[in-house]
Write a structure and sequence with these properties.
This protein is of the alpha/beta class. The chain is built from six helices and five strands, in the order E-H-E-H-H-H-H-E-H-E-E. This is Broad specificity phosphatase PhoE.
């Protein structure tokens, strides 16, 4: 059986994260100061959004775009701030935060996101070193899948900009703490 190492890197900080709003499709990064250190990886995958592509570029990483690593689709909430939703749609926000199957925004539910990420993990070739630049929600979904945690734990995980989370696979996925 082949051994696999997977490192997920969260994209660098954006203005959306700074002010607490859902991302727009092409949100750019805030300036990186100092520039992040380039990790080593044999194979690189990159989420298709601008913020992931810019982070990969800043890290000197080159690889194909992988649509399975895309951020959660927030439907009509895209670009809205949490504060706005707390005032304008508190029931919808509460439903989304409390039920993994809820998608009051008309986009992708947490459970749909987690299923997409689990499918991606099952299809990732089982050998070698992999590095993927992606989004906090994709990293949360990966953690839940690997740890076999309930989907209700999704919103209890914080993933900071440029965070690196490591996994290994030898018969089954494991969280790898370095």
């Amino acid at each position: 059986m082949k051994h696999t190492h997977l490192t997920l890197i969260c994209h660098a900080r954006t203005d959306a994260q700074r002010i607490g709003r859902f991302h727009l499709g092409e949100d750019p990064l805030l300036p990186l100061d100092p520039p992040p250190t380039r990790p080593d990886a044999a194979r690189v995958l990159i989420a298709p959004e601008l913020r992931a592509r810019q982070t990969a570029e800043a890290l000197g990483l080159v690889g194909p775009l992988d649509s399975a690593l895309r951020d959660c689709d927030f439907g009509r909430w895209q670009g809205m701030s949490i504060k706005h939703l707390e005032q304008q749609d508190p029931a919808g926000l509460g439903l989304w935060l409390g039920s993994p199957d809820a998608a009051p925004h008309g986009g992708e539910s947490v459970s749909q996101l987690c299923a997409r990420v689990a499918q991606w993990l099952s299809e990732l070739p089982r050998q070698g070193e992999w590095l993927a630049v992606t989004h906090p929600m994709v990293i949360r979904a990966t953690l839940l899948h690997v740890l076999e945690a309930p989907l209700e734990a999704f919103h209890q995980i914080d993933v900071l900009p440029l965070a690196q989370v490591h996994f290994s696979h030898y018969g089954r996925w494991r969280l790898r703490i370095e």
